Amino acid sequence: MTNPHGLIGKFAFAAAIAAACAAADAEIINFANGDKVTGAIVSSTPESVVVNTVFGQVTIPRTAIAQISPDAPAGAKAADAAPAQPAPAADETAPEPKPKEPEWLVEYRNFVKQNFPEDWQFRIRGGAALKETTSTNFSVSLALDAKKEWDLNKFEFTAFYNYTSETIDDVTNRTLDKYGAETKFRRDVNKASNWYYENLLSYRRDTVKGIRDQVDEALTFGYRFDFKRYNLYIDIAPGPAVRYINADDYDTKWVVMAVVSESLHWDISKFMAFEQKLYAGFNLQKPSEYSVNFGLALLMHATEVMDIALRYTYSYDAVNADTAQKSEQTLLLSFEFPFNWK
Fold it and tell me: What is the pLDDT of residues 48-57, one digit of tens each?
């Protein structure tokens, strides 16, 4: 009687020999549906491939095959047991990662947050100016701006100091200075209205014009023209005013005036803005005495911590002695540092 265990052993030995022979020149057949089979290619035609596998001979249509590649040796299989995964395709809709901010910029923001009131805005301005009047003046200008907005109210404050060296006929003959402060308090009639009330109060000392002390106060009623489509607004506000002036060779101390205040602001882009301001008035008792202050500014937001501005101002003031200097022009390249400024 034949021993069944002997037959099973012979069959297993024959299968192992067949598998080893098949694997000797084995190929990996990768199917289009993601499956694969390993075996030795017996024959190949443009229509099909005949493969000898451990389960027998198989004929595979060419249309079902995605790729044929050599089978890796056993050692390489062990080393690369996990097949490499293709890199995921880049998501074009995903936002680009923001570059890491410089450490100094983070420290600057923390400094502002810790040392300045959150509901106040501040700005420091400074630069050099060349002024041409009846003489040539070179000056250094410094200014501090502050403002706060709440409910229907807005308060603005500016303090300034100008150091001036005057030259006549190419000879520096005197050093002059100018300083002062200005405040503006505005209250809107209501949230839905463009009408507003405004109080303007200023103090200045100007040795160029011989003004020892000058105080101006005006109460105006104005309207804002808001062109939101163009990021542009214009404020116009007329009203009565009073001036106290203590100047060389000018006997009048109190002057009642009619004034108009006008300003324009245009955000040209995220990085650039344009400003224009006008304040004009005349002496009601002597209309030939009038004053005009006109200013233009082009501001460029260079960085988060600094703006660069080109500022032009023109002033004409006849509410003073006949011998006093009347007009003045200034072109200033200003470097400005905002703190919570908007």
Answer: 888 887 777 8
Q: Is the pLDDT of residue 222 over 50?
A: yes
Residues of the chain with pLDDT > 90, as a percent, come to 44
- CATH number for the domain formed by residue range(s) 120-339: 2.40.128.130
Kindly give, in sequence order, each residue whose CB lies less than 8 Å from that of residue 239, ignoring residues fewer than 6 positions away.
198, 218, 219, 220, 221, 258, 259, 260, 261
Closest alpha carbon to 252 in 211, 222, 280: 211
Tell me how far CA of residue 154 lies from CA of 115, 147, 184, 199, in angstroms. Answer: 22, 7, 8, 11
Q: Is residue 332 classed exposed, middle or buried when 0-12, 13-18 and 19+ CB atoms within 10 A define those classes?
A: buried
Instruction: List every span in the chain annotated with CATH 2.30.30.100.
Output: 4-79
State residue 284 phi and psi, 5-degree precision: -65, -30
- The predicted model gives 75-84 an average pLDDT of 48
Q: How far apart are CA 233 and CA 224, in angstroms?
A: 7
Q: What is the 3-state secondary structure of the chain?
A: CCCHHHHHHHHHHHHHHHHHHHHHCCEEEEECCCCEEEEEEEEECCCEEEEEECCEEEEEEHHHEEEEEECCCHHHHHHCCCCCCCCCCCCCCCCCCCCCCCHHHHHHHHHHHHHCCCCEEEEEEEEEEEEECCCEEEEEEEEEEEEEEECCEEEEEEEEEEEEEEEECCEEEEEEEEEEEEEEEEEECCCCCCEEEEEEEEEEEECCCCEEEEEEEEEEEEEEEEEHHHCEEEEEEEEEEEEEEEECCECCCEEEEEEEEEEEEEEEECCEEEEEEEEEEEECCCCCCEEEEEEEEEEECCCCCCEEEEEEEEEEECCCCCCCCCEEEEEEEEEEEEECCC
CA 205 to chain CA centroid, Å, is 37
Q: Which residue ranges does the chain devote to CATH 2.40.128.130?
A: 120-339
Domain 4-79 has CATH 2.30.30.100: yes
Q: What are phi and psi of 76, to 5 degrees?
A: -70, -35
